[in-house]
């Protein structure tokens, strides 16, 4: 073996080495964050819930008018609830489709709809507080504790939707889409 073998090999490698072009990798994919995906899905589920609520509203109105004895007629309240549900469904649909297309301007639509849902839930429990229902000829007060739990559950999803819509990862994702 030649005594200068290591140095000679290094010289030959640098002399005859192929120069490959530097490969710049593909940019990292701009993946939609989980918070944005969840906000979009929850918004579409809110649209679905409001549409189903609207479809069930008029049969419920007919039943409630027959059994409600105290507190007067609920027709006005039910009609207003239907209008609020319709407005919420439209706002959530606009917001969800806009957020899917990476439009930051869609977030207020989702927020307004969610605030309307929470407000209508709270207003609904206030409305049922003094109501009595005629069950088998006996006037029975409405269980507001049970409807309070339902109201709480009805408020959790809109609040989570707003929090996810305005989360920092969703905001950053929307900002990158504008650039």
Topology:
Elements: H1 5-16, H2 34-67, E1 68-70, H3 75-100, H4 107-128, E2 132-135, E3 138-141, H5 144-165, H6 168-178
Antiparallel strand pairs: 1-2, 2-3
Helix pairs in contact: 2-3, 2-5, 3-4, 4-5
Give a verbal description of the structure.
This protein has one domain (33-178). Strands 1-2-3 form a three-stranded antiparallel β-sheet. Helix content is 71%, strand content 6%. The radius of gyration is 30 Å and the shape is rod-shaped. It has helices at 5-16, 34-67, 75-100, 107-128, 144-165, 168-178; strands at 68-70, 132-135, 138-141. Helix 2 packs antiparallel against helix 3 (75-100) and helix 4 packs antiparallel against helix 5 (144-165). It contains six helices and three strands; from the N terminus they run ααβααββαα.
Low-confidence stretches: none
Q: List the domain count as a whole number.
A: 1
Backbone structural class: mainly alpha
Strand proportion, as a percent range, falls in 5-15%
> What general form does the structure show?
rod-shaped
Give the termini distance in whole angstroms.
62 Å
Largest sheet: spatial strand order: 1-2-3
- Rounded mean pLDDT is 80
Provide a short characterization of the protein structure.
The protein is mostly helical.
Name some characteristics of this structure.
179 residues, mainly alpha, three-stranded antiparallel sheet, 6 helices, 3 strands, 71% helix, 6% strand
């Amino acid at each position: 073996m030649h005594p200068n073998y290591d140095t000679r090999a290094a010289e030959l490698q640098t002399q005859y080495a192929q120069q490959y072009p530097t490969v710049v990798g593909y940019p990292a994919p701009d993946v939609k964050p989980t918070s944005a995906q969840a906000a979009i899905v929850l918004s579409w589920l809110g649209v679905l819930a409001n549409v189903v609520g609207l479809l069930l509203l008029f049969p419920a109105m007919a039943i409630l008018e027959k059994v409600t004895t105290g507190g007067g007629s609920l027709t006005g309240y039910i009609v207003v609830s239907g209008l609020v549900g319709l407005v919420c469904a439209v706002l959530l649909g606009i917001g969800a489709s806009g957020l899917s297309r990476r439009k930051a301007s869609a977030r207020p639509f989702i927020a307004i709809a969610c605030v309307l849902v929470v407000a209508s839930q709270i207003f609904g429990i206030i409305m049922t507080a003094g109501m009595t229902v005629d069950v088998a000829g006996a006037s029975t007060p409405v269980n507001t504790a049970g409807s309070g739990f339902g109201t709480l559950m009805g408020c959790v999803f809109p609040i989570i939707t707003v929090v996810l819509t305005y989360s920092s990862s969703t905001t950053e994702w929307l900002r990158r889409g504008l650039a």
